[in-house]
Amino acid sequence: MSLLQVKDISHAYRSSKRLWRSGSLTAVLSKVSFAIEPGQCLGLLGTSGAGKSTLGKVILGMERPRQGRVIFQGHDLYNVDPQTARLLRRDLQVVFQDCYSSVNPRMTAEQIIAEPLDNYENLTRVDRKRRVGELLEAVGLKAADMQRYPHTFSGGQLQRINIARAIALKPKLIVLDEPVSSLDMVNQTRILTLLSELKATLGLSYLFITHDVKAAHVISDSLAVMKEGRIVELCSDKNQLAASTHPAVCELYASVLPEHPRDRLLGREASGPTSP
């Protein structure tokens, strides 16, 4: 059985009312379907406005869809009793794009990471500190960092804290919503490596939402491409995506800059083939 099944999800937002007329509906998702298997990562690609983040909110239970079903561990997320919903929520975590707005600046790293532990487990103070220390070390930080505040960390370090919070309850699935797009290239590579290592050691599954083809290829097992609220390409093998001729896929690959600056056009047509 698939860990997550997204079945024919459609969603729309209603614009604001004007005088006597009710607001019109604007479709943001249209019959989106896919599945994620245990221990796998699906990379969800698309340009801004494609509907990726809205879909992530639907999967997380934050945005009820107008149509369709989200089946997580065999349960319909939007048709379960409160107790089951709470248990499912434990196994479904998230890491957002903006590492700074994702934390309370007045809380220490210990308090941030321990939030889910406090919500679901009854730990003694000693055990709580031990668990937080272990989680910090698991993401490449030090146990002594638990008393520091967010402003004392770099962006890459703070995103590691957000990841530590996400894995605190040993979830089955983590939604990664553009988790490296706000970081510099060095920290992007480090965070992607960390996520890959955690996936292997903890048996995690990911939905990796991104517009970055390179990042998606690093961490994903399968890839899907969204355009205007629809899945336009879905490849069970990530290496198959490059062969697609769909305009949305071609647009994503065309946006990837060559590794070396000399191979970039810099806003002008190339005068000829570039030497190796």
UniProtKB/TrEMBL annotation:
<keyword id="KW-0997">Cell inner membrane</keyword>
<keyword id="KW-0067">ATP-binding</keyword>
<dbReference type="InterPro" id="IPR017871">
    <property type="entry name" value="ABC_transporter-like_CS"/>
</dbReference>
<dbReference type="GO" id="GO:0005524">
    <property type="term" value="F:ATP binding"/>
</dbReference>
<keyword id="KW-0813">Transport</keyword>
<keyword id="KW-0406">Ion transport</keyword>
<feature type="domain" description="ABC transporter">
    <location>
        <begin position="4"/>
        <end position="253"/>
    </location>
</feature>
<dbReference type="InterPro" id="IPR003439">
    <property type="entry name" value="ABC_transporter-like_ATP-bd"/>
</dbReference>
<keyword id="KW-0921">Nickel transport</keyword>
<dbReference type="InterPro" id="IPR027417">
    <property type="entry name" value="P-loop_NTPase"/>
</dbReference>
<keyword id="KW-1278">Translocase</keyword>
<keyword id="KW-0472">Membrane</keyword>
<keyword id="KW-0547">Nucleotide-binding</keyword>
<dbReference type="Pfam" id="PF00005">
    <property type="entry name" value="ABC_tran"/>
</dbReference>
<keyword id="KW-0533">Nickel</keyword>
<dbReference type="InterPro" id="IPR050319">
    <property type="entry name" value="ABC_transp_ATP-bind"/>
</dbReference>
<dbReference type="InterPro" id="IPR014137">
    <property type="entry name" value="Nickel_NikE"/>
</dbReference>
<protein>
    <submittedName>
        <fullName>Nickel import ATP-binding protein NikE</fullName>
    </submittedName>
</protein>
<keyword id="KW-1003">Cell membrane</keyword>
<comment type="similarity">
    <text>Belongs to the ABC transporter superfamily.</text>
</comment>
<dbReference type="InterPro" id="IPR003593">
    <property type="entry name" value="AAA+_ATPase"/>
</dbReference>
